[in-house]
Write a structure and sequence with these properties.
The chain is an alpha/beta fold and 353 residues long. It folds into two domains: 223 residues, 3-Layer(aba) Sandwich (Rossmann fold); 79 residues, Winged helix-like DNA-binding domain superfamily/Winged helix DNA-binding domain (Arc Repressor Mutant, subunit A). The chain is built from 13 helices and 13 strands. The protein has a nine-stranded mixed sheet, sandwiched between helices. Strands 1-2 form a two-stranded antiparallel sheet.
């Protein structure tokens, strides 16, 4: 406790006039994760239920430990003096967490430290508990601290929808960071279930104090077509919405730079092609009924795929027009009926949080 008080005494505010402030040279903006997390910053990672936050955590652990681009897109710059990433796992059982991380295939496993907290109480409101947590992080030589999720870490000491409680809680996190010498922090938080259907609710994360505290806000959402989208903004952070692609075999994640309207069109193409692949000879009315949604849009897609030679037609009984997948359709398209693993397959869904 005496050591903690000494560190407290050393934490003095910097005071100077604006004249002196502006006479100082501007530092180059450095990033711990390129374009996503400013050097020494706090990131709030908000995702809807079952959108894939845990899978993203695995990829962040791997990127940090193995010095690989995060999501295949963003270079990482770990603290050379504190290269370890420590994750506080409040959500998963030890066995499930271990199985998932084994599949991720992290090479430098000594640079990942795990603290299992599911079912345990860690009241950060108590000073001696904060000191103990800081000691854990120091002993592990932690440079990046991941807390998953905020709701469990806050349980019993505050309400995630209350600004006063949240401000107090994130203040404790900052205090622990400073005591432990941790440079960067990523805090996971759940979005509301309304985020899938309501655009205005897409970034709903509870109290405003969450976003006020964070230097970077990462968002992972899943739309009504089961497509995941990742984006980020904040202080010197701006990443436009990108499509998320999962690979079930190694739980890897990649981002695809495609705008939502293009993705919506491609998804409808996929649904029409899959419907015909599984139902050779199907009629136009049944195609529209099977797919649902806007029947006019489905009809336009069907007509276009016929013109492009992806779908072939032939006369059927009672003046019915039968639809088949064309023999000349591209090989990738012909695999869309089930031969190609994609981000919306059941096996990929099984490995997302």
């Amino acid at each position: 406790m005496a050591d903690a008080m000494e560190r407290e005494d050393e934490r003095r505010p910097v005071r100077r006039t604006l004249t002196d402030e502006l006479n100082l040279p501007d530092d180059e903006q450095l990033y711990s994760i390129d374009r996503l997390l400013p050097h020494g910053g706090n990131a709030l990672f908000a995702g809807r239920y079952k959108a894939g936050k845990t899978t993203f955590n695995g990829q962040l652990l791997k990127a940090w430990a193995d010095r690989e681009p995060f999501l295949g897109e963003f270079d990482v710059y770990p603290d050379p003096e504190h290269p370890v990433v420590t994750i506080f796992n409040y959500e998963m059982s030890e066995g499930q967490f271990r199985r998932w991380l084994r599949r991720v295939g992290i090479r430098n496993t000594a640079h990942v430290h795990v603290v299992h907290l599911r079912g345990l109480s860690l009241p950060l409101s108590l000073p001696h508990i904060r000191e103990e947590v800081a000691e854990w992080l120091r002993e592990a030589n932690t440079g990046l601290w991941i807390v998953d999720p905020a709701s469990r870490a806050l349980a019993g000491v505050g309400d995630g929808n209350d600004n006063t409680d949240v401000a107090r809680f994130v203040g404790w996190l900052d205090e622990i960071k400073l005591m432990a010498g941790v440079r960067d922090l990523v805090l996971n938080i759940h979005m509301g279930h309304a985020a899938a259907a309501d655009k205005d609710a897409e970034r709903a994360i509870g109290a405003q104090a969450w976003s006020a505290w964070a230097d970077a806000l990462w968002f992972l959402n899943k739309d009504k077509d089961n497509c995941r989208w990742f984006s980020a903004d904040g202080r010197d952070v701006s990443v436009e919405k990108m499509l998320v692609s999962y690979q079930a075999e190694d739980m890897s994640v990649a981002l695809v730079d495609v705008d939502p309207e293009t993705q919506k069109r491609d998804m409808l193409d996929r649904k029409v092609i899959e419907c015909i692949t599984h139902n050779p000879g199907i009629g136009a009315t049944r195609i529209r009924n099977e797919i649902g949604g806007n029947s006019t849009e489905v009809g336009h897609v069907l007509d276009r795929l016929i013109r492009e030679g992806v779908i072939a037609t032939r006369p059927g009984a009672r003046r019915k027009v039968e639809h088949y997948l064309s023999e000349d359709a591209p090989i990738l398209t012909r695999g869309m009926g089930g031969d190609v693993q994609d981000s919306n397959s059941p096996s990929a869904e099984d490995h997302t949080d």
